[in-house]
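User: Okay, second chain of the day. Same drill as before: sequence in, structure tokens out.
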Amino acid sequence: MKSASTRTLAAEAVAAVIARGESLDEALAHAVPRLADAGDAALLKELCFGTLRWRFRLEAPLTALLRHPLKLRDADVHALLLVGLYQLAYLRVPDHAAVAETVAATAGLGKHWARGLVNATLRNFLRQRDRLEAAADATATARHAHPDWLIERLKADWPADWEAILAANNVRPPMTLRANRRVTTPARLKEQLAAAGIDSEGVATADDALTLAVPVDVDRLPGFADGELSVQDAGAQHAAALLDCAAGMRVLDACAAPGGKTCHILERCPELTECVALDASAPRLQRLRDNLDRLHLEATVMTGDARRPRDWWDGRPFDRILLDAPCSGSGVIRRHPDIKSLRRAGDIDRLAAVQRELLDALWPLLAPGGKLVYATCSVLRIENEAQIDAFLGRQAGARAADPGTIRGRNTGAGRQILPGDNGMDGFYYACLERL
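Assistant: Same drill. Structure tokens below.
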């Protein structure tokens, strides 16, 4: 496989997201092995994550600087210009080095004709920066670095909080760990981290969590390879606690991959009769199996569509069901900034329809007296409280239970954590009991 420069690969990855709709994780999986120097992986990720985080702000000066929009076949050059602008606006790379390296990257794209365009555009940005940034501040899209449709949704759903949500989405996320309580404790893990020169703090809202002062590569985490800990946002760690599992129960994690919540369930209650981890994506389930192996845990792993239990269910009811539903991801944008470019306004109604199908299909699988925990990493009401209110309205045998001690916004039947609340990503949780 031919190696390529870091900025060439960054441009290709950003273009894959913007022009082809690939996730950034997918794009980076193709890009990282092609680096000329494996040590440049951190820079590559910084360029990609940062460019996509600020894309909707960077597009404003780029549009002003280009005489004509680039053709679709030159989406890679457009992406390279965004990568160059990101370096000049947000990184401490010396201006001359950022310009020179970005211009040189045109060769790796096979677009030698673009050298002059890239050089002139970036140098013009430096000369006109104050004017261009002032003009960007005049538009909501550029000022908040979010697409218009999402800004309007957040205004409608969270009139007192929408600006704080947008600001939180543009902040680099913390790195939070989950101590595997089967083999260690947060206090012991904190000591091990300190001995390795890694500072951490406990999280008041999550019993098993520690947040690092500075993110590090997982290879530096003591005990990671041996299954003593995992990387998981504190907001996501509420799911296992809310299920309130006990020995002898049969549990279903209905949309389980990549397995963080499945593993946490098993860590908290190893005496389960069975934990079924179901997902429609076989490739994603391999990541779940890898996590189970590293943590020395066992689950019944199945490929199947949770909306069609007849294809995979054996007829035995579950005492607990976790439905971590497919959603907009609007609560985890700070961690996945490509969501801003990938998600469209029209996706939300489609996702809400899928969530409804999942709730209705899984509810009959729950034993009387059992509990279903509905979770999303969304902050949009149509996916959260509106979804649960509608479900309770059509299911006479369901009632909402107290969602524990989650420090979130009370939204009736559930709790909403907004991005940045107590350092967490944005999550919604509702607990439903079957009468």
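The first helix runs from residue 6 to 20.

User: Thanks, on to the next one.
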